[in-house]
Specification:
A hairpin with a 4-residue loop joins strand 9 and strand 10. The strands form 3 sheets. Strands 7, 8, 9, 10, 13 and 14 form a 6-stranded mixed beta sheet that branches. A 5-stranded antiparallel beta sheet has the order 2-1-5-4-3, sandwiched between helices. The chain has a 5-stranded antiparallel beta sheet with strand order 6-16-15-11-12, with helices on one face. The protein is elongated. With 404 residues, it is α+β, with helices and mostly antiparallel strands. It contains 9 helices and 16 strands.
């Protein structure tokens, strides 16, 4: 690696990797151009950028110049391998020289031919997203400004890689969530529904969901849920729980039993996640809702000639929190003809500058026995339209019609 201390030469190398015209390139072109410029500026044999994939806990070569076949084939590597492993352990730039007694464990195949390797962390907003490695086959003296140049390139690559990963994740999560929230709600004799979903400001997609589906015997399953977290991970968990709940609902009439099975599934297969869920079974003929709550806020019932009230429902712990030593509970609630029941997630009424009880009281008094679409419009106007919400909002309104 060059040890040139010529200020003019150092300025030329700095300008080569900070060229603003590089911002016009797509990610693959940007990586190729930056690594080629770095290789030329430092007169090194190999430069490689490795991205850390947290889901598979592995390093993936995403770009290289002068590397061997394993880098070009993007073979997944252990984050404990080679110089990159040292970078991950120490969270700083490291230099490894053959014969210096500073050997690394399980060196990568291409590293074995190198006399000296410089590895620097790829950071994005303070988060370690990978490592940038530069290697020479012949011994070189390494200057501090060489390390700074490689770190500069690593930081630029890290930001570009994270930006693309974030955009790809948001697109995937948005597509997944759109496929899981019902496009249309089933037409059910005696019942009318309306729903709204709004992503929180700066979130784009989260783990809130609602569902309405037909059950045997003319009944209807109603779900309102909220997976803790945002982005693709929350959407994936949401999708799995939604499908599992539907399956359990087909074989179990009691909502509490359905949530018990969902809880067991989450504790076993979704370790570390927490979800609040309210599951209800609507019977239009009987005019009842049979429901169970796993940490979820109670629905609001607005009946003709009566003040709106929160359902008097016993609330059990959220799904995935802890295995219960007692059965979950369910309760029946009458839904008279012409009345409205509103299900929602906490993003509707929680605000940083307002007590939760104040938001709940405003919600209670805002739900009236009207058409579901009108109730949804009113709630959106009162709680969402005035200012961006910090969390996702899901609302589902049911009205029992005059005839079955």
């Amino acid at each position: 690696m060059s040890a040139s201390g010529d200020p003019a030469e150092r300025l030329r190398r700095f300008e080569a990797v900070t060229d603003t015209t590089l911002a016009r390139l797509d990610l693959d072109q940007l990586l190729d151009e930056l690594l080629e410029r770095l290789q030329e500026a430092l007169s090194v044999d190999t430069v490689a950028a490795l991205y850390y994939d947290s889901r598979s806990a592995s390093l993936i070569p995403i770009a290289s110049v002068g590397g061997n076949e394993s880098l070009r084939r993007r073979v997944r590597l252990s984050p404990r391998s080679g110089v990159a492993g040292r970078v991950f352990d120490e969270q700083r730039a490291v230099v490894v020289e053959q014969g210096s007694g500073d050997a690394v464990s399980r060196p990568m195949e291409w590293e074995k031919d190198m006399a000296v390797i410089l590895g620097t962390p790829m950071l994005a907003n303070g988060q370690l997203v990978g490592a940038l490695l530069a290697g020479c086959r012949t011994p070189r003296t390494l200057a501090e400004h060489d390390v700074q140049l490689v770190q500069m390139v690593a930081d630029r690559v890290g930001l570009a890689v994270q930006a693309q990963a974030t955009n790809a994740e948001l697109a995937a999560a948005s597509t997944l969530q759109a496929s899981l929230v019902p496009d249309t709600i089933p037409s059910v004799p005696g019942l009318r529904f309306a729903a709204r979903y709004v992503a929180g400001a700066g979130i784009a997609v989260g783990g809130d969901w609602y569902d309405v589906f037909a059950l045997p015997g003319g009944k209807v399953g109603i779900v309102m849920g909220d997976v803790a977290g945002h982005g693709l991970p929350a959407s994936v968990v949401m999708g799995r729980l939604r499908s599992a709940l539907r399956a359990y609902a087909l074989d179990n009439g009691d909502p509490a039993v359905v949530l018990e099975k969902l809880d067991r599934k989450a504790i076993h297969f979704e370790t570390g996640t927490m979800t609040t869920v309210l599951y209800a079974v609507a019977d239009a003929a009987e005019g009842t809702l049979w429901m169970s709550s796993a940490g979820h806020l109670p629905p609001v019932l607005a009946a003709l000639g009566r003040p709106p009230v929160f359902a008097d429902i016993l609330v059990d712990p959220p799904i995935g929190m802890v295995a219960l030593d007692r059965p979950r509970q369910s309760m029946h609630m009458d839904v008279p003809v012409g009345s409205v029941c509103c299900f929602y997630t906490d993003g509707l009424i929680e605000r940083r500058d307002r007590a939760l009880d104040d938001g709940l009281e405003q919600l209670r008094t805002s739900v009236v026995p009207d058409l579901p679409e009108a109730v949804c419009d009113t709630l959106m106007s009162l709680f969402v339209d005035e200012e961006p919400v910090d969390d996702d909002v899901a609302v589902l309104v049911l009205r029992r019609e005059n005839s079955y």
